[in-house]
Design brief:
The protein has 7 helices and 3 strands; from the N terminus they run αβααββαααα. By secondary structure, the chain is mainly α. It has 2 domains: 69 residues, Winged helix-like DNA-binding domain superfamily/Winged helix DNA-binding domain (Arc Repressor Mutant, subunit A), CATH 1.10.10; 79 residues, no CATH class. Strand 2 and strand 3 form a beta hairpin.
């Protein structure tokens, strides 16, 4: 579940409000519509604590996690990178929007997603954005830029071909 973003989301929640593992799971369910397992949350909290990004304080039978100074600095850095990445993404969306003549596609590009469709598509988009982001964060990414461009172009073509196939199947 949102593996690449879980760390960022957990840090975001803890930054706003000190939380127990259980309350994190509840908040994640509210935000994402899907409840992560304790088997994914508690090891992540342990990792964040080892990295000194958060600290835990026992309160009764539960531990309350809070952000450390190092964690706040790390989180601010991630936020800046995310904003920068979002600007690049918006430029891509704007380019697609400006190039298309298809009114339906323009509506899809500008319309917020909602419903069950939204959850599925957002999950796919989050994973794709994560992979694109990680690719561009690698210091050697320029060496593989042509491969990357080909993958993006091929993937787009394959999705268009699949849509055509689906239309043909629906008309039978």
């Amino acid at each position: 579940m949102y593996k690449g973003y879980l760390k960022l989301i957990v840090l975001s929640i803890i930054q706003k409000e000190n939380s127990s593992g259980y309350s994190l799971i509840k908040k994640l369910k509210e935000q994402l519509g899907k409840s992560p397992s304790p088997g994914s949350i508690y090891p992540l909290l342990n990792e964040l604590e080892i990295d000194k990004l958060i600290k835990k304080k026992p309160e009764g039978k539960k531990n309350i996690y809070s952000m450390t100074l190092k964690g706040k600095t790390y989180f601010k850095k991630l936020e800046l990178e995310k904003r920068s990445f979002s600007k690049v993404g918006m430029k891509i969306v704007e380019s697609v929007y400006n190039m298309t003549k298809d009114a339906d596609l323009k509506e899809v590009i500008t319309k917020p997603l909602s419903g069950d469709f939204c959850k599925t598509v957002n999950y796919d988009i989050i994973n794709l954005k994560k992979d694109i982001y990680l690719f561009h964060q690698d210091e050697n990414y320029k060496k593989f830029q042509k491969d990357y461009d080909k993958i993006i172009k091929d993937t787009s073509k394959k999705l268009k071909d699949l849509r055509k196939k689906m239309k043909i199947q629906a008309n039978k």
